[in-house]
Amino acid sequence: MAETERQKMLQALKKAREAYAQRAVTGERFIVPRAGKRGVDVILYEPKERKAGQRLPVLFNMHGGAWVGGDAVLMDSFCVKLANEIPAFIVNVNYTKADVEPVSYAMEEVCDAVAYFAAHAEEYDIAAEKMSVGGHSAGGQIAAGAALMLRDGGTRLACQMLVYPATDVTAKDTDEWLPFAFPDGADRTAYNSPLLAADERLAGLSPAIFIICGIDELRAQGIAYAKRLIDLAVPVKIKEYPKALHGFIEVNRPEYEGDERRSPEQDLLCKDAERYLIQELRACFAEKTD
């Protein structure tokens, strides 16, 4: 990519982010404070109905977009659905994109957000022992890396939701932006490419729930990572949709318009996958004692 093309891309991304920031959302926009660092932009969702005194489980959700695109607002209705039907407290993370900070920075944002809400569990009526991370595509890679980073820091999650995740960024076609997205060497860090991590780094990770697309260049990575976790006795649930296109859960939502991947068939698969995720997340949280 020529430098002029790169600059055009970056300007287009900046304009898109400015537009996303003006969109109305169902949840509540919030900035997670961090000492000495820029706060983390998130959107918060609570169920319409909750039992008196009920402490809700928590899911930190990360959208896709190849690390440089997309926005948390594009998963607004997905987060509403999970909040109401699990029920759960959803933290929809609008992580810093890779053209601004390396991907590892986004993982640190997730970890700091988890720590903040764990420390303020009583204020939000949430269960600190029932926290989970989840993401889609590039967001799945961020979630997987954050789960490992949190475990290394002593935080045990209830589970991790990995929806057609990237787990080995060295397998992706090398784009011009990859060097600034992964300056610390994508093939050398367990956080960036957990599929390549040593067994001792992955053993003992929190249970994982996988959604895999049949028509997807990331399919092999997701399956391979699930198998590695299974071999290391990490509890894994996995469901593959052979006819699903990459991104089918996101693009068939009302926030997406004009995406060529949308179709009635893909929408039915999307709804089934939503039901599966709600069922498995609910079961995962139920295994934790109050």
Account of the 3D structure:
The model has no long low-confidence stretch (mean pLDDT 92). Helix content is 39%, strand content 21%. It contains ten helices and eight strands. It is globular, with a radius of gyration of 18 Å. The protein has a single domain (27-286), classed as Rossmann fold, CATH 3.40.50. Strand 5 (126-136), helix 5 (138-152) and strand 6 (159-163) form a beta-alpha-beta unit. The protein has an eight-stranded mixed beta sheet, with helices on both faces. Helix 3 (103-119) crosses helix 5. It starts with a helix and ends with a helix.
Write a brief caption for the model.
With 290 residues, the protein is α/β, with parallel strands linked by helices.
Element order: H for helix, E for strand: HEEEHEHHEHEHHEHEHH
Contiguous runs where pLDDT drops below 50 for at least 5 residues? none
- Backbone structural class: alpha/beta
CATH-level-4 superfamily name? Alpha/Beta hydrolase fold, catalytic domain
CATH topology label: Rossmann fold
Q: Over all CA atoms, what is the radius of gyration? A: 18 Å
C-alpha geometry: globular
Q: Which strands sit side by side, in order, in the main sheet?
A: 1-2-4-3-5-6-7-8
Q: How far apart are the first and last residues' alpha carbons, in Å?
A: 53 Å
Number of helices: 10
Domain Alpha/beta hydrolase fold-3: 60-249
Protein name: Alpha/beta hydrolase fold-3 domain-containing protein
GO molecular function: hydrolase activity
Organism: Hydrogeniiclostridium mannosilyticum
Annotation keywords:
alpha/beta, Rossmann fold, 8-stranded mixed β-sheet, 10 helices
